């Protein structure tokens, strides 16, 4: 192992180079892969806002060594983040995650622990090394709610047992945390059914900025459908299977020429085998803009899940009209457009697709309204929430 690890210790040369008086230690399951999943993208934008407001960031990822050899580590270093990497010190000793924490905690003003298992694991370590440090529990989404909804769809008792396990874990974390970060006001209200100390709960959603396009692709020049979502997230696997089994066959009865592109990292074999001329499994795409700029409709038929769905916000950034479910629409105020955007059966979803696909006037209105829908998720809005939290 030692031969594979760097023999220098540059990540600990930060002490004489600290730029800011205020610093945060962020711990997640991985170095955020901002172009692969919504949770990573959100955390990346939060890190950018912290640094832009002169708050230094120490980043620790709780995963296996081989995952450190990625471009993502360098990306965060280039932003000015101090990132933990396995390395060998001058004495030939492997520098561990605990070594890193002990080094940076004296300079940290608060800790941001991302996801339930991470909080459970690192809360006692942080408290032991710096008892007075403020510690935030970022739920990412209410995991109990997501698993409960999966159980309601599948009736699998093991999934409900998992939901109850997460509820116990998440409530214990809430009790210990100085602040609880939820991703939407809807999840805040749901959490309050179980945890009554709501003064500790802060809503910090995804960050989405509307993309002004001076030369937009017209309605007439667009065609076909788009889905995007990382396949490490089970609700995305279910949504694509639902598309393949029910929605697209029903749509093809009236519009057989329409195709759909499916973008997402790490597609399993069950998804790859669905690939066809009209059901295109693209997999991971480094650059997704061309898909958003040339598709006519974005589809997100999510049957379970929780939290704000990054894919919905991403389609709104591009002003791409979408069709989703009540689960997918959570946290977004579509106002009078809701009945056109939201459908909860295959028939309703297909009817909404056909309306948007054929009616230019309706399509253009929903496209132009996208900017207003994502205003609550703009950089300025989320930045103010973060600054209120940390300052």
Q: Could you characterize what this model shows?
A:
Helix 1 (38-52) links the parallel strand 1 (22-28) and strand 2 (55-61). This protein has helices at residues 38-52, 71-79, 97-104, 116-129, 143-154, 157-176, 185-191, 234-252, 269-272, 289-294, 310-317, 326-329, 338-341, 346-358, 360-373, 379-390, and strands at 22-28, 55-61, 82-83, 87-88, 94-95, 110-114, 134-138, 179-182, 201-203, 225-228, 260-263, 279-283, 297-300, 322-324. It folds into two domains: 2-207 and 378-390, Glycogen Phosphorylase B (Rossmann fold); 225-373, Glycogen Phosphorylase B (Rossmann fold, 3-Layer(aba) Sandwich), CATH 3.40.50.2000. It is globular, with a radius of gyration of 22 Å. It is α/β, with parallel strands linked by helices and 391 residues long. Helix 4 (116-129) runs parallel beside helix 6, helix 5 (143-154) runs antiparallel to helix 6 and helix 8 (234-252) crosses helix 14.
The side-by-side strand order for the widest beta sheet comes to: 3-2-1-6-7-8-9
Sheet bearing the most strands, described? 7 strands, parallel
Shape: globular
CATH topology of the largest domain: Rossmann fold
Short description:
This protein has 16 helices and 14 strands.
How do the strands and helices of this protein lay out in sequence?
Elements lengths: L21 E7 L9 H15 L2 E7 L9 H9 L2 E2 L3 E2 L5 E2 L1 H8 L5 E5 L1 H14 L4 E5 L4 H12 L2 H20 L2 E4 L2 H7 L9 E3 L21 E4 L5 H19 L7 E4 L5 H4 L6 E5 L5 H6 L2 E4 L9 H8 L4 E3 L1 H4 L8 H4 L4 H13 L1 H14 L5 H12 L1
Parallel strand pairs: 1-2, 1-6, 2-3, 6-7, 7-8, 8-9, 10-11, 10-13, 11-12, 13-14
Antiparallel strand pairs: 4-5
């Amino acid at each position: 192992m030692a031969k594979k690890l760097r023999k220098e210790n540059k990540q600990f040369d930060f002490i004489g180079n600290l730029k800011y008086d205020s610093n945060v230690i962020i711990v997640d399951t991985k170095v955020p892969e901002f172009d692969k999943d919504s949770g990573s993208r959100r955390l990346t934008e939060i890190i950018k806002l912290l640094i832009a407001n002169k708050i230094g960031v120490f980043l620790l990822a709780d995963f296996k060594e081989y995952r450190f050899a990625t471009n993502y580590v360098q990306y965060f270093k280039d932003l000015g983040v101090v990132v933990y990497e396995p390395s060998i010190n001058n004495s030939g000793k492997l520098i561990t995650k605990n070594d890193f924490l002990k080094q940076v905690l004296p300079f940290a003003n608060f800790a941001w622990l991302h996801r339930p298992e991470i909080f459970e694991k690192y809360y006692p370590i942080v408290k032991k090394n710096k008892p007075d440090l403020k510690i935030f529990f970022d739920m990412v989404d209410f995991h109990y709610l997501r698993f409960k909804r999966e159980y309601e769809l599948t009736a699998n008792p093991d999934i409900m047992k998992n939901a109850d396990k997460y509820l116990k874990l998440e409530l214990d974390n809430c009790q210990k945390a100085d602040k609880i970060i939820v991703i939407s006001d809807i999840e805040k209200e749901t959490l309050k059914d179980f945890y009554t100390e709501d003064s500790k709960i802060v809503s910090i959603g995804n960050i989405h900025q509307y993309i002004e396009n001076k030369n937009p692709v017209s309605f007439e020049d667009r065609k076909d459908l788009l889905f995007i979502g990382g396949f490490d997230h089970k609700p995305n696997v279910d949504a694509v299977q639902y598309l393949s089994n029910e929605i697209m066959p029903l749509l093809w009865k009236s519009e057989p020429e329409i195709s759909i592109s499916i973008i997402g990292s790490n597609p399993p074999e069950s998804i790859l085998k669905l690939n066809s001329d009209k059901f295109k499994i693209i997999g991971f795409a480094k650059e997704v803009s061309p898909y958003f700029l040339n598709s006519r409709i974005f589809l997100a038929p999510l049957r379970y899940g929780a939290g704000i769905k990054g894919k919905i916000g991403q389609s709104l950034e591009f002003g791409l009209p979408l069709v989703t479910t009540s689960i997918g629409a959570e946290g977004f105020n579509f106002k009078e457009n809701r009945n056109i955007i939201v459908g909860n059966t295959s028939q309703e979803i297909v009817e909404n697709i056909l309306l948007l696909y054929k009616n230019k006037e309706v399509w253009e209105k929903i496209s132009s309204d996208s900017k207003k829908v994502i205003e609550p998720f703009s950089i300025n809005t989320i930045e103010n929430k973060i600054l209120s939290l940390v300052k």
